[in-house]
Amino acid sequence: MDRELWVRADKPDNKEKRKELVISALESGVCTAIVRPGDEDFAEMGKIDLKINDNGRISDTVELVELRTPEDQDRAMAMAGKKDVVILDSSDWTIIPLENLIAKYRNSGTKVFACADDTEQAKLYLQTLEKGVDGIVINTLDSNKVRSFANIISGNESVDLSVVEVLELRNIEMGDRVCVDTVSMMVPGEGMLIGSQASCLFLVQSESEDNGYVAARPFRVNAGAVHAYVMGPNGRTRYLAELRSGDPIVLVDKDGKTRTSAVGRCKVEQRPLILMTATDGENTYSTILQNAETVKLVGPDGAISVFKLKAGDKVFARIEAGGRHFGMKIEETIREI
């Protein structure tokens, strides 16, 4: 599920302080800010959706509820199914249990957001009752703290990488392969998770190393054939052929740490392809890559070009059970061969 991130910029009495919070939101990729009446001119600073807080009433469909008493909780619960979004703010969640409100809003058609003072609070709210809240509203007077929240919503946490053993590399027919150029510079050991089966995505390194023939292009991942999956935000997969300029994409390093970037452009070209198969000791997985020196998989001993890769070599992959439906993980037995 895609989560939303807003910033509460209406709290400072000083307009310049409120403006600083909105600027920090823009610089951090946060596209929605709650402001006061009279702050409408902040829209001139960039493309941002300003929500005017008029004593808790944001609009006909969005309400901000300050939770201080059990009566406030009752009022918030009564809004389930009647508002598009209800934003909850409490200085003491032991008095007003967030679990009660999340349970009430579930399947009501109303999104529930929670105000968070720091990233640890935000993480907790996103995990409460497993589903968590639908969005986080950054609740700080310090504009410097806004940026730290950006990765929370993007799901930029670590993924578990397993070591798999290469079984075979085999030249196959020419085909359409995708080069993904991002808006970010990557480093050796960092790239994207790519695979022919959603259950096993291999760590394909960016072109971040010179090879003596072609200059490094650390913004690029020569990802593989058009049919392959690539991991996107929130653990969802996309087909490489679907990616378009501006789409979010997840970058992963050799330690499993992730960050979100965006696609700058994709280049689809006919190239010679190679099929690689590997095993985790129980199952066999595969991916199809361009047969080129610059295409490298990342393993425990560093990046290895597909030119030099051989049976018995070890590479990193993300392995998970279950299947996929429209890119989302589902608990269903699906065999992809």
Query: Can you name the CATH architecture of the largest domain?
Result: Beta Complex
For this structure, the CATH topology of the largest domain is Endonuclease - Pi-scei, Chain A, domain 1
Please report the total strand number as a whole number: 23
What low-confidence regions span 5 or more consecutive residues with pLDDT below 50?
324-331
Q: Total number of helical segments?
A: 5
The value of Rg in angstroms is 23 Å
Strand content: 35-45%
Helix-strand topology string: EHEEEHEHEHEHEEEEEEEEEEEEEEEE
**What fraction, in percent, of the residue positions are helical?**
10-25%
Mean pLDDT: 89
Provide keyphrases for this structure.
337 residues, seven-stranded parallel β-sheet, TIM Barrel, Endonuclease - Pi-scei, Chain A, domain 1, mainly beta, 2 domains, 5 helices, twelve-stranded antiparallel β-sheet
Structure overview:
The protein folds into two domains: 4-154, TIM Barrel (Alpha-Beta Barrel), CATH 3.20.20.70; 162-330, Endonuclease - Pi-scei, Chain A, domain 1, CATH 2.170.16. Helix content is 13%, strand content 39%. The protein has five helices and 23 strands. The strands form four sheets. Strands 8, 9, 10, 11, 12, 13, 14, 15, 16, 17, 18 and 21 form a twelve-stranded antiparallel sheet that branches. It has a seven-stranded parallel sheet with strand order 3-2-1-7-6-5-4, covered by helices on one side. The longest helix is centred in the N-terminal third of the chain and has 13 residues, at 15-27.
